[in-house]
Amino acid sequence: MSAEEAAARVEQRWAVVSISIIAMMVFLATFAGVHQATMPQPRLELADPRTLHIEGEFIESNLGSALEPDGSVTVRILGQQYSFTPQCIVVPTNTLVTFRAASADVVHGFLIQNTNVNLMLVPGYVSSLSARFTKPAGSHMPCHEYCGTGHEGMWANVHVIDKAEFLALARQQRRVSCVAK
Ligand code: CUA
To answer: Which atom of ligand 1 is nearest to the CA of 82?
Structure first.
């Protein structure tokens, strides 16, 4: 075999490897998009950071977990330098849980560890994502976008509790959270 033939064969082999890698990445991106429905937000919802605290969906009395008439749960959370409100979040197992969060100042991260819930809170917009939790667990929810000198101290806790237990709490409180009263 001449040196040219050997080089051509190595080139060919490399082309097959690189095309396979690209094909695998396209497959994985398609799988994640279609099967796990990780799509870009279909619409933009606005939330003015200057008035979040005084009117609309994200006023303090409206934050926390709310049981909806259709049996799903909506969790409303406000992020600000350097905390989340509420700082302790309760959600039920085996229920569609929709997180709706907004930032009152700068960009913050919203990540529930060991789950697929991972969002950015961008001032001016509502960030929303739905999830289902299968078993009771406790997770940390750290801010994962650098947001200032107090960034590393910005986090919340998420408690996934049994559905029946959650429903009992929801009967007593309009908004459920595990923030100590
Ligand atoms: Cu908020 Cu980092």
So the answer is: 1
The 10 Å Cβ neighbour count of residue 84 is: 23
The Cα 143–Cα 102 span in angstroms is 13
> How far apart are the CA of 54 and the centre of ligand 1, in A?
22
d(CA 137, CA 159) in angstroms, rounded, equals: 6
- SS3 state at 92: strand
Estimate to the nearest angstrom the gap between the alpha carbon of 64 and the chain centroid.
Answer: 15
Of all protein residues, the one whose alpha carbon is nearest to atom 1 of ligand 1 is 108
> Which residues does a 6 A CB cutoff place in the pocket of ligand 1?
82, 108, 143, 145-147, 151, 154
Report if pTM > 0.85.
no
Average pLDDT across each block of 10 residues of the chain; the chain has 181 residues. List them in order. 91 96 94 71 81 92 95 96 96 96 96 92 92 94 96 96 95 89 60
